[in-house]
Recover the amino acids of this structure.
């Protein structure tokens, strides 16, 4: 509980004690006079019984016993009124609500003993019985209210538990349906994409084989197609495997950047790679994201930039990894290219890791993609 909540709770308890003490005292003042007029003890007993209510949550049984003693003494001295019964009723309600149902026997036994004392003191059996039954009715009412409150709280907890169970069941059903949908997607992708990519890689391999058999030079682009097909097939199978489970998405990382750069070079785009970090030095998610950013940036450069060269730079800062890909293509600040799906995918990856991405033409021409990926989990 917060300090503000605790202070509010203490304020409520103090207000309750003052209200009960005031009602008990006023009830004694306005009641018909008893055999004994109110004196210091007659005023002190209601106040003491009311003050004991401050401990009714920590020591419910003790408070019931204390308030019972105060009431027994009050009535045995025949002070006026029944207002002093209010502290006992509040204490009894709290004790029964906390689970101490048998504590109600304490005031009942004290009431029976007091009834005997009243008769011995000169009251008629009828007067003693009327007073005893009146007090007994209040005791039974306080006990019943405490038991009802306890049962209500128990029922409320059961409803909350059932609601939580129902929510867990809905979540489990949603997870199962998501898993079934992932499996369906994986099967469809496997049937469509892997076959097409395998055919491309196979045709490129056949062309390379025929060129070697004829003694002709093998075009570098053909070799790049063959290598890219094999790599795409491997990555696609790994990704489809991840779709079939809840495992973290596998894939290439910083250690495979030289292969990626090599394929770009073989396709006709000279690329220079500078890096001062390897895969084991950064989190796995950052490792994969860095590879994908470089892959998409080089793909865009090869398709749209009409560049003669590109540079890939990977630098580790104290708290982040900087990934920068630049080219000397046709993009200018006056005619920036329209962002496509690739840039959107890069931005989503970077944002998911809590990083920043800038992708814009350079002042002296060409295009630059710069991503800064934090090395710690986002808050």
């Amino acid at each position: 509980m917060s300090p503000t909540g605790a202070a509010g709770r203490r304020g409520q308890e103090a207000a309750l004690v003052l209200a009960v003490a005031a009602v008990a005292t006023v009830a004694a003042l306005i009641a018909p006079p008893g055999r004994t007029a109110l004196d210091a003890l007659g005023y002190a007993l209601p106040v003491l019984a009311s003050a004991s209510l401050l401990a009714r949550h920590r020591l419910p049984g003790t408070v019931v016993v204390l308030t019972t003693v105060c009431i027994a003494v009050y009535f045995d001295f025949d002070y006026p009124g029944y207002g002093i019964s209010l502290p006992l009723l509040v204490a009894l309600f709290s004790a029964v609500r906390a689970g101490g149902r048998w504590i109600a026997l304490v005031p009942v036994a004290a009431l029976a003993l007091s009834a005997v004392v009243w008769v011995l003191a000169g009251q008629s059996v009828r007067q003693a019985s009327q007073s005893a039954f009146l007090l007994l009715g209040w005791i039974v009412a306080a006990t019943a209210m405490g038991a009802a409150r306890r049962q209500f709280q128990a029922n409320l907890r059961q409803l909350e538990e059932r609601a939580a169970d129902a929510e867990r069941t809905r979540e489990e059903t949603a997870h199962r349906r998501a898993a079934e949908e992932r499996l369906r997607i994986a099967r469809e992708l496997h049937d469509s994409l892997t076959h097409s990519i395998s055919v491309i890689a196979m045709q490129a391999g056949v062309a390379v084989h025929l060129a070697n058999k004829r003694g002709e030079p093998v075009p570098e682009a053909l070799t790049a197609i063959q290598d890219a097909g094999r790599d795409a097939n491997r990555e696609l199978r790994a990704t489809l495997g991840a779709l079939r489970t809840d495992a973290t998405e596998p894939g290439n990382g910083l250690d495979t950047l030289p292969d990626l750069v090599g394929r770009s070079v073989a396709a006709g785009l000279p690329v220079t790679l500078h890096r001062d970090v390897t895969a084991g030095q950064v989190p796995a998610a950052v490792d994969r994201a860095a590879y994908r950013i470089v892959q998409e940036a080089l793909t865009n450069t090869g398709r749209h930039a009409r560049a003669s060269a590109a540079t890939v730079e990977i630098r580790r800062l104290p708290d982040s990894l900087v990934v920068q890909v630049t080219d000397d293509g046709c993009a200018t600040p006056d005619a920036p290219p329209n962002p496509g799906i690739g840039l959107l995918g890069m931005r989503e990856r970077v944002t998911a890791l809590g990083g920043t991405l800038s992708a814009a033409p350079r002042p002296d021409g060409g295009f630059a993609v710069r991503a800064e990926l934090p090395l710690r989990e986002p808050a």
Q: What stands out?
A: The longest helix spans residues 125-214. The chain has a mean pLDDT of 77. The beta strands are 271-275, 310-316, 320-327, 356-361, 367-374. Residues 104 and 142 are 9 Å apart (CA to CA).
